[in-house]
């Protein structure tokens, strides 16, 4: 059994050790009953403090993967039923009980003016467990990164690699203006001011036709129009996830999805990833161990890594999900933004026709985020359940947005816009990759996306993403640190670059600023 630790990594050594052992256990490399090395022996072999090994072993014990027997050692446990498997990498925020307050805040408050004191509500006690499960520091960190900086090199024009939306100049204002005028000049919707909860029938028909063009067999019965694809994640969680249910995700993933799973008190388990997305060779072991209810994945132009899952891995993912009877949530927000490299990826929903895949997409990444319109493709039984649950959230997607999307899909108007957008984004990707090659120091690595928005960069050893972000923001350049997307919130060795957000003329300058900041650390 080969184990290593990287002393220059931003990830604590005990977490590195626990991650390697976890991967070996769930993959079957360490079989049930395998005796792990004693703490002192392993500490000596790795040249680390014994406490590091103790912490790693304790984390694996908390996860139900290993157990110690006095006088005999530490052993790998058999796969446990789903109900007995503890959470991996999740914590719940707990409020201090009201009984812990020993003083009377009204009696203790003294006002110099003699006026009755203003007593604020005890927010930490009043907020619900649901809201406390959110990791608000992630949201705050994302907001800080997206605000950019205005330091010495920023002037009034910061360079934003952080925000997960297109450059405002890429929004097709003329096209939107034209289709909006046509949509509201039409008498087609006279006498029908409100939409059905699933969306206008004609729009559902057009979306189904669009999905068939992508290789997904469906009709209007399989489609519901959403107020953004994130609403689809929320509705699916409401429909399927009970407290304690396991959800498998890529180790780094779309962080609003993580927040939704946390709010449902789900066990979130990260599956390791590489340059081709989720390690599906490990998926069987993870499903056997944790018995997930859902597998949430972004197989095409992944956020944040930019990777695309090959066809063989897609087949494996669908096959494993069927055998373990867990549902797949395929988030395909960027799937239409293919640059033309190689073969166009087939959605998972196009490889499975028995209902195990629920597909989500949106107009936000190809038209404008302000449109707030997406869609879900699923079995009609699922659509009916999601529609019923939606009545507690909203009655339907904005009729104005639906009319605009309907006009965009008619006569292939949106297809022409997306084709020109993908060509422009491919050029920006090539400019960004060229700048990375020319300016970045030794030890920096990055992905080469085939579509979408993002490049995922691995920092040289010993460099922390948050430290680098602080230096870059002072010079007017921002990006997203990897820890925001990490299931365990501990990744400080990666950064996400949205190469389509800055102006094309600013890409080289922004990359050069990041490289100069790296070299100065």
Automatic annotation (TrEMBL):
Pfam families xref list: Aminotran_1_2 (PF00155), GntR (PF00392)
Co-factor requirement: pyridoxal 5'-phosphate
Gene3D superfamilies to which the protein is assigned, alphabetical: Aspartate Aminotransferase, domain 1 (3.90.1150.10), Type I PLP-dependent aspartate aminotransferase-like (Major domain) (3.40.640.10), Winged helix-like DNA-binding domain superfamily/Winged helix DNA-binding domain (1.10.10.10)
Provenance organism: Bifidobacterium callitrichos
GO MF annotations in UniProt: DNA binding; DNA-binding transcription factor activity; pyridoxal phosphate binding; transaminase activity
Keyword set includes Transcription: yes
Family label: In the C-terminal section; belongs to the class-I pyridoxal-phosphate-dependent aminotransferase family.
Region (Disordered): 94-115, 143-167
UniProt-listed InterPro entries: Aminotransferase_I/II_large (IPR004839), HTH_trans_reg/aminotransferase (IPR051446), PyrdxlP-dep_Trfase (IPR015424), PyrdxlP-dep_Trfase_major (IPR015421), PyrdxlP-dep_Trfase_small (IPR015422), Tscrpt_reg_HTH_GntR (IPR000524), WH-like_DNA-bd_sf (IPR036388), WH_DNA-bd_sf (IPR036390)
Assembly and binders: Homodimer.
Name under which the protein is recorded: GntR family transcriptional regulator
Alphabetical UniProt keywords: Aminotransferase, DNA-binding, Pyridoxal phosphate, Transcription, Transcription regulation, Transferase
Residue runs in coiled coils: none
Domain annotation HTH gntR-type: ranges: 11-79
């Amino acid at each position: 059994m080969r184990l290593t630790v990287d002393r220059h990594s931003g990830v604590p050594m005990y977490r590195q050790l626990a991650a390697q052992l976890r991967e070996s256990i769930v993959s079957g490399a360490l079989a049930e009953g395998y005796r792990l090395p004693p703490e002192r022996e392993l500490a000596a072999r790795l040249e680390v403090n014994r406490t590091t090994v103790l912490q790693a072993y304790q984390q694996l014990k908390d996860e139900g993967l290993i157990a110690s027997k006095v006088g005999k050692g530490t052993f790998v446990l058999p796969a446990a039923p789903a109900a007995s498997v503890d959470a991996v990498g999740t914590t719940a925020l707990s409020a201090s009980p009201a009984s812990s307050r020993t003083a009377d805040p009204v009696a203790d408050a003294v006002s110099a003016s003699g006026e009755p004191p203003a007593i604020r509500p005890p927010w930490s006690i009043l907020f619900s467990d649901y809201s406390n499960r959110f990791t608000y520091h992630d949201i705050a960190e994302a907001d800080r990164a997206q605000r950019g900086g205005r330091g010495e090199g920023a002037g009034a024009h910061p360079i934003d690699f952080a925000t997960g939306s297109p450059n405002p100049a890429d929004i097709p204002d003329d096209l939107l203006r034209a289709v909006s005028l046509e949509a509201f000049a039409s008498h087609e919707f006279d006498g029908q001011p409100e939409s059905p909860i699933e969306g206008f029938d004609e729009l559902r028909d057009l979306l189904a036709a669009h999905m068939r063009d992508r290789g997904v067999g469906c009709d209007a019965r399989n489609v519901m129009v959403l107020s953004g694809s994130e609403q689809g994640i929320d509705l699916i969680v409401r429909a399927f996830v009970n407290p304690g249910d396991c959800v498998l995700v890529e180790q780094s993933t779309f962080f609003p999805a993580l927040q939704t799973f946390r709010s449902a008190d789900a066990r979130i388990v990260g599956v390791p990833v590489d340059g081709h997305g989720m390690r599906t060779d490990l998926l069987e072991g993870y499903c056997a161990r944790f018995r997930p209810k859902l597998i949430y994945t972004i197989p095409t132009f992944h956020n944040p890594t930019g990777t695309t899952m090959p066809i063989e891995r897609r087949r494996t993912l669908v096959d494993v999900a069927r055998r373990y009877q867990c549902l797949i949530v395929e988030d395909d927000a960027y799937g239409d933004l293919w640059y033309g490299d190689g073969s166009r990826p087939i959605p998972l929903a196009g490889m499975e026709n028995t209902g195990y895949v629920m597909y989500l997409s949106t107009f936000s990444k190809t038209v404008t985020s302000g449109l707030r319109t997406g869609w879900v493709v699923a079995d009609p039984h699922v659509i009916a359940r999601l529609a019923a649950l939606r009545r507690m959230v909203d009655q339907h997607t904005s009729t104005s947005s639906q009319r605009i999307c309907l006009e965009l899909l008619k006569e292939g108007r949106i297809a022409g816009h997306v084709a020109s957008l993908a060509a422009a984004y491919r050029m920006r990707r090539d400019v960004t990759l060229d700048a990375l090659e020319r300016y970045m120091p030794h030890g920096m690595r990055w992905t080469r996306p085939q579509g979408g928005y993002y490049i995922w960069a691995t920092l040289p050893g010993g460099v922390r993403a948050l430290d680098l972000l602080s230096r870059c923001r002072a010079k007017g350049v921002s990006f997203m640190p990897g820890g925001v997307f990490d299931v365990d919130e501990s990744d400080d060795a990666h950064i996400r670059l949205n190469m389509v957000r800055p102006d094309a003329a600013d890409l080289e300058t922004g990359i050069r600023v990041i490289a100069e900041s790296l070299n100065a650390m």
